[in-house]
Write a structure and sequence with these properties.
globular; 211 residues; Aconitase, domain 4; alpha/beta; single chain; two-stranded antiparallel ribbon
Length: 211
């Protein structure tokens, strides 16, 4: 049985690691591949081992793998996410244009939430996937200028500011801290309505039924 996700905790939105910065086309089948993996569709923890297996890493040009910032080892994104979660490190995904296009597979939103993800920041989203992210309590944010995607570096840590005061139509302030000691502030957009923000504050839409 899927347990309720944790409700809003501002500490989860500070010092966030970049799990992956994907480049190019990234459909729900890149985020959560089907085929063999669908045998686990009723077991969210098992199917989450396929997280981003088909995604192209913009930093390395490799498919499905990244660098674990805790160990400097190259590993599958799901294993890195589990490592971060075990060490209480929140993480997010940086997406390209039309992130999450394709099928409406909800595992593509459930898996990152289960493994400790807090947000996806993209140049743009496919509409259904954006809605699925919101249902799972993940922030779906877009760059105010798509070229800001290029300003995100592999070792960045991110702070999302003022989330207790987030309202429909109000940009989210983001401080991006670079490993060279510099930082910059971006303002990201979202399309959350007030009921969708209620899901975010509670931890997910499912949590409405666990109050």
């Amino acid at each position: 049985m899927l347990e309720p996700f944790s409700s809003l905790n501002i500490d989860n939105y500070s010092n966030i690691a970049i799990l992956a910065k994907v480049t190019g086309k990234c459909t729900t089948d890149h985020i959560s591949p089907a085929g063999y993996w669908l045998r686990y569709r009723g077991h969210i923890d098992n199917i989450s081992n396929n997280l981003l297996l088909g995604a192209s890493n913009s930093f390395t040009d490799k498919i499905g793998t990244g660098i674990n910032k805790l160990t400097n080892d190259i590993d599958k994104f799901a294993e890195i996410a589990r490592s971060y979660k075990l060490n209480n490190i929140s993480w997010l995904i940086i997406g390209d244009h039309n992130y999450g296009e394709g099928s409406s597979r909800e595992h593509a939103a459930l898996s990152p939430r289960l493994l400790g993800g807090t947000a996806v920041i993209a140049r743009s989203f496919a509409r259904i996937h954006e809605s699925n992210l919101k249902k799972q309590g993940l922030l779906a944010l877009t760059f105010s200028d798509p070229s800001e995607y290029d300003r995100i570096r592999e070792d960045d840590r991110v702070n999302l500011i003022g989330l207790k005061e987030i309202t429909p139509g109000k940009p989210v302030e983001v401080v991006v801290n670079h490993s060279d000691g510099t930082s910059e502030t971006l303002y990201l957009n979202h399309t959350c309505s007030e009921p969708q923000l209620a899901w975010f504050r509670l931890g997910s839409a499912l949590n409405l039924f666990h109050q």
